[in-house]
Design a protein that fits this description.
Strand order of the largest sheet: 1-2
Helix content: 55-70%
Radius of gyration: 25 Å
Strand content: 5-15%
Shape: elongated
Distance between the termini: 80 Å
Largest sheet: 2 strands, antiparallel
Structural class: mainly alpha
Order of helices and strands: EEHHHHHHH
Oligomer: single chain
Low-confidence stretches: none
Number of helices: 7
Length: 166
């Protein structure tokens, strides 16, 4: 069963995902697949090393002893990695929005984006990202306009042709 850790000071609870969409298949690029396989291998080694002391919660990402990662530590690590890559300072959750923006810019259908993000429907995705959809929609309308009008004679050609008519 997929779980999401809920951290309460001094207590950790594991709850099922908020909806069926919380447990889903997510496409990964080949480099991410390779990294995840290597991580899984390292995690299996940790599990062996700790033996019965390994806190197995069936988490993909955990401390070396199997216990859940603390959100503040994940954020701090993200900030260190981003700084090392000389990326502008940004919040970790903004990466989710950035991924969505890249998918949209790449022409990924909203239904696929909805599935990847785990939203219950494309309508939810449209609602959450409405502000981003406006810009994309305006750009798409401009692209369509260029396609429809690319063979239209220019204004100067129209004026010359009209003047030559009897």
């Amino acid at each position: 069963m997929a779980v999401r850790p809920i951290l309460i000071p001094g207590l950790r609870l594991f709850k099922a995902p908020k909806s069926r969409a919380g447990k889903r298949w997510v496409p990964l690029a080949v480099p991410a697949q390779v990294a995840l396989k290597a991580h899984k291998t390292a995690q299996a080694e940790d599990r062996k090393l700790f033996g019965d002391d390994y806190a197995d919660h069936d988490l993909v990402f955990a401390e070396v002893d199997g216990s859940p990662l603390r959100p503040a530590n994940v954020t701090a690590a993200f900030e260190r990695y981003a700084a090392a890559c000389e990326l502008p300072r940004t919040e970790l959750h903004s990466m989710r929005h950035g991924a969505w923006s890249l998918m949209l810019a790449g022409g990924v259908p909203i239904e696929v984006v909805q599935m990847v993000l785990g939203h219950s429907s494309p309508a939810v995705t449209r609602s959450v990202y409405r502000h981003m959809l406006r810009k994309a929609t305006a750009e798409q309308v401009e692209t369509a306009t260029q396609l429809l009008t690319r063979h239209r004679p220019s204004e100067s050609t129209l004026t010359t042709t009209t003047a030559a008519l009897p």
